[in-house]
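Help needed: design a sequence for this.
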């Protein structure tokens, strides 16, 4: 089958279109004909060696597709079902087919396409954990959302607004500002033009925000902490600009704060929790009209271009690979 493999760590150029052995389902597995693949920062961390993996490997953890075959002892699924996954113990989504543990896939409900499922599941599960667990938000709060026009940011902004939270988003361009506003952001700060922490202080009358959701990391960490009100919560869920620097928490804060570093697999550790949270994500789409913006579609062989575009912030919304 056609796949994209990583034979050595490095930049996007190491993503190599190749022929890979077609997989076969074992007991408890399903074989999926892949229809759409989500492109995520996690794959760039593994490709670079920041998150070590044994070489060679087929990257990717998020996909949607049709069940082509069932392994022994699989119940609750049938050949022809549209399913999706965003968390597999043995990733390998950048391919025409993938074998997945049956208890780590979810059936996609009617009314949601394969492209929509691949575009929403990982980010949607992340947003559910961020808003329900990392900081259970309440109506009337104010949140600072970094990368508000990214895959997570656009979903997070919509969900926060639906829960009655005021959203201040940060973006880098006019196009991304427009996308963040369309998602419902009350205020949008272009961090390339002004100091976002100073602007947050102005927008909150000096009070600061109740919660910061930060997927950027290195370049935003100190400003994020400075943007918090006393007893506010800093949620660091990514590090697209690099690792956060050491910080002395005895200085640089305006009182008591909380810091948390959520890791999605901890919030979908059991099949029941995966199904429950996935159902909530799909309900946001079908019941609450959550809009999932697909920024660009790429051929499977162009995975390197997709990852480069993601890292260089050239796109708005979710990027998909199409086998």
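Sure. Designed sequence:
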């Amino acid at each position: 089958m056609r796949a994209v493999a990583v034979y050595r760590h490095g930049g996007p150029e190491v993503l190599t279109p190749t022929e890979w052995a077609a997989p076969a389902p074992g007991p408890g597995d399903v074989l999926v004909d892949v229809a759409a693949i989500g492109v995520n920062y996690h794959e760039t961390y593994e490709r670079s060696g920041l998150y070590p993996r044994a070489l060679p490997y087929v990257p990717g953890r998020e996909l949607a597709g049709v069940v082509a075959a069932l392994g022994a002892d699989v119940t609750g699924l049938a050949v022809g079902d549209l399913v999706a996954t965003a968390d597999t113990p043995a990733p390998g989504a950048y391919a025409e087919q993938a074998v997945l543990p049956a208890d780590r896939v979810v059936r996609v409900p009617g009314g949601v396409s394969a492209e929509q499922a691949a575009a929403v599941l990982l980010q949607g599960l992340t947003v559910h954990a961020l808003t329900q667990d990392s900081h259970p938000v309440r109506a009337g709060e104010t949140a600072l959302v970094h990368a508000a026009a990214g895959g997570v940011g656009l979903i997070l902004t919509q969900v926060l607004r639906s829960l009655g939270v005021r959203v201040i988003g940060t973006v880098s361009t006019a196009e991304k500002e427009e996308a963040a506003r369309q998602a419902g952001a009350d205020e949008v700060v272009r961090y390339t033009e002004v100091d976002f922490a100073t602007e947050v202080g102005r927008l909150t009358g000096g009070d600061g925000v109740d919660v910061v959701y930060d997927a950027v990391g290195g370049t935003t960490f100190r400003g994020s902490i400075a943007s918090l009100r006393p007893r506010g919560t800093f949620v660091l869920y990514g590090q697209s600009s690099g690792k956060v620097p050491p910080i002395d928490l005895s200085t640089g804060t305006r009182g008591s704060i909380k810091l948390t570093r959520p890791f999605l697999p901890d919030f979908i550790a059991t099949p029941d929790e995966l199904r429950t949270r996935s159902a909530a994500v799909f309900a946001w789409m079908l019941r609450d009209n959550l809009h999932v913006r697909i920024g660009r579609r790429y051929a499977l062989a162009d995975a390197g271009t997709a990852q480069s575009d993601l890292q260089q912030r050239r796109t708005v919304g979710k990027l998909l690979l199409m086998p």
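The longest strand covers residues 29-38.
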